[in-house]
Specification:
about 280 residues, 9-stranded mixed sheet, 15 strands, about 20% helix, about 25% strand, disordered C terminus
Length: about 280
């Protein structure tokens, strides 16, 4: 594990493994404040558009509500949160998979956390010169129903050439083997990405967005035997290379696993993200 400020050895570890665990990036009070603020946002949310989020590729559905969320605060449900009649199976606060994708822009508290100088320093220590914040989300990993996030690469969804996506994964609660911590395949980023997720030019004759195979280096998915767990404590940060194969398993425990996640890219073209929306750091 690393600690702030990051140094040359930390960058070497990141470049070798494709991820870096940074202890104590956020203090416990900040974590509690972010969780309290999210509770306020949920209390004010009136569930009119019910959008379910899944990462299972054979079930993945993308709608306009999802695509229009890059500069907004939208709410997405767990797969198991809807009853057969379309109603919520529990209180709305326990049915959410995530809230995103413009928290870092639209909410003062989340914006202040992402703009902290020590966070910018950590990103710069990994070699980023002009990082552009393109997406943020709050993940709940609800007790008992928090769904599995299948093995994937972030750069599939936030594609740049060359690959430059970096994920910042802040643990607002302890992330354990029981409640769905991250798992990753060390060094898998060196093989490149296998797919790109983009708008379907034939829509509405087909789905709104589709996957397209690219390159020939990366395997699609990954076997559990290759994955290593990354349990972390409240306030820790996991920095994730966009081409690293990673996932998290279902939360079958009675404890939630709240995280705040930010994705950035190196801004060289001015056109980034699924809709080209730019958010400068």
């Amino acid at each position: 594990m690393a600690s702030m400020p990051l140094g040359a050895a930390d960058r070497e570890r990141f470049e070798r493994e494709g991820y870096l665990v940074v202890e104590g990036a956020l203090d416990k009070k900040t974590c509690r404040d972010m969780m309290s603020r999210m509770a306020e946002l949920i209390a004010a949310w009136q569930p009119e558009h019910l959008s379910v989020f899944t990462t299972k590729q054979e079930m993945r559905q993308t709608d306009e509500y999802f695509l229009e969320s890059s500069d907004k605060i939208h709410f997405f449900l767990e797969e198991k949160a809807l009853a057969e009649d379309g109603s919520l199976t529990a209180d709305k606060s326990l049915c959410l998979n995530k809230v995103g994708h413009g928290l870092h822009d639209q909410d003062p508290l989340f914006r202040s956390v992402t703009q902290r100088p020590e966070i910018a320093q950590a990103v710069g220590a990994l070699g980023y010169v002009s990082p552009d914040l393109v997406q943020s989300m709050y993940i709940f990993k609800q007790p008992h129903i928090g769904g599995e996030v299948g093995t994937h690469q972030d750069s599939t969804f936030l594609y740049t050439d060359p690959c430059s996506c970096l994920g910042l994964w802040f643990a607002l609660e302890d992330a354990t083997l029981e409640n769905g911590c991250l798992w990753a395949i060390p060094g898998s980023h060196r093989h490149g990405i296998s797919q790109v997720f983009h708008r379907n030019p034939e829509y509405p004759e087909g789905p709104l967005c589709i996957f397209r195979d690219v390159g020939d280096g990366a395997s699609k998915g990954g076997e559990d035997g290759e994955l290593v767990p990354l349990p972390v404590k409240q306030g820790d940060l996991v920095m994730i290379h966009g081409a690293v194969q990673h996932m998290s398993k279902e939360n079958t425990s009675s404890k939630s696993r709240h995280t705040f996640q930010v994705h950035l890219v190196e801004d060289t073209s001015g056109r980034v993200g699924i809709d080209g929306v730019s958010h400068e750091w």
